[in-house]
Write a structure and sequence with these properties.
The chain is an all-alpha fold. The protein has one domain. It is 86% helix and 0% strand. α1 runs antiparallel to α2. The model has no long low-confidence stretch (mean pLDDT 87).
């Protein structure tokens, strides 16, 4: 169960990062929102990767 949650967090963070980048490149998102999306994406990927490696 813990492995699936950590994998979902990594996937969610990656999707957030890619969608934020694509939104910025298309001109749909202002630059002020990109840093917030990037921070959340990094947190999700970091937590997901950390819990994956913490398994005994």
């Amino acid at each position: 169960m813990k492995a699936t949650i950590s994998e979902l967090l990594v996937i969610l963070g990656t999707v957030m990062f890619v969608s934020g980048t694509m939104g910025y490149l298309r001109g749909e998102l202002p630059a002020e929102q990109i840093s917030g999306i990037g921070v959340l994406a990094l947190i999700f990927v970091g937590v997901g990767a950390g819990t994956t490696k913490a398994k005994p």
